[in-house]
Input
Amino acid sequence: MSIEIAVSVQDIHAAVETVNDPEYPGISIVDLGLLENIKVNEIGEVVIHLIPTFSGCPALQMIAQDVREVIEKLSGVKKVDVVWLNSPVWNVSRVTAKAEKDLAEKFTVAVQLQDRKVECPRCQSETTIKSHFGPSRCRSVHVCSGCNEIVETLRD
Amino acid sequence: MKRSWASLEEFEQFLDNGGIVEPVDDMPREYRQAVFDFIEMHANSELMGGLTERDWIPKAPGLRHKMSVIAKTQDEIGHAHLLYMVAADLKIKTREEMMQDLFAGKSKFHNVFHYRAKTWGDQVAIAFLVDAAALVSQQAVFKNCSYGPYKRILRRIIAEEGFHLRFGEESVLRIAEGTEVQRSMFQESINDWWWPALQLFGPDSKPNDLLLRWHIKSERNEILRDRWIQKFVPLLQGYGFTIPDSGLRRNEEKDRWEIGPIDWEPLKQTMVMGGPDSARRISEASDSWDKTGWVREALEKVSV
Output
């Protein structure tokens, strides 16, 4: 027996991937690790579970709205719920290698993984931490020992 | 690798060919000073802007607006933080000296932060008109900026300011669809903020403007100002608001808006700290710096 599926998880996933972080245009929220899972039933009711980089992030509403808009456009979708989860808690290991590369190349932003020194995105020299907070809770500020670059760093 | 140039002419040739200057380079003294002054003013403006924004956290109408105001405050202060670091790296003034000069009224910040935001309507007008004006000028600087660290930080600042503008547009839409009282409050705010926002671009650029010659800025003030006018006149009129300019007219032949004469006196006043709210703003910034000293001290201890 086969069940007619109104819309596939793959299609929904591909659509969510087109949504960019409002503060890093061109970098997908999926690559930043914000998508936790997708649920869809046979009549096309979709639930998207997202997790925030930090719970006070001002972009949550905007991101949810952007996700809702792209999903609503898919054929077979009847209803969309976008839910921000409290757990699991986001951490930088959820950021994909592609996003890390794009952040470095397009925005000179580094990603701080546990037990790994933050390298300068420009010259790969070591950096030292200058302050624990940058323009938001999920970013710190480092200074490059090689080229003096001020390096914003995505962190837990 | 440290680069140096035999003469100012040779350096200018390098800039004209699209060369990017880095902090380790042996750049001409005049260029170093010009870049420093420009970034210091930008940093000061972000800080003053963040403090203005902060004043509206307790007064924002509703949780959503409150969150956006908190976020913007955090962003602006964060931008100031990054820009002061880039400025300090030019080794003309230390960060501490920049702060002291700001509090002593000795260094500049944007004209719009010399006025007082009295109502939520003012706050929305700032988020819409002023943020857009700042974004238009930052985009133009970014496009062709010859100083590397500033150009790279601008790229991130611009992405965040674009995000702020979405908040601004959303807030304007809500007020425009609001009650008559809300709409008339916003009309008053437009009346008060239209000219200061327009003057943020400054008077027409002089033919020998060094910022343009050295590719620190890439477009003339009057061109940027006009770009903003062409966008915001139809937008505000579309929402049913009036532009406070009796000389404003539509040139159908050229398909553009032409404005009346600009009175530059208010801008001149703000440049010498004589704006309507200059003194209070500066003393508030200074108080805030003193009161938060313990936070900086505590964080420094954590870093070590």
Summary: Chain A has two domains: 9-84, 92-154. Residues 60-72 of chain A form the longest helix (13 residues). The interface with chain B takes residues 22-25, 56-59, 61-62, 106-109, 129-137, 139, 141, 143, 147-150, 152 of chain A (CB under 8 Å). The mean pLDDT of chain A is 91.
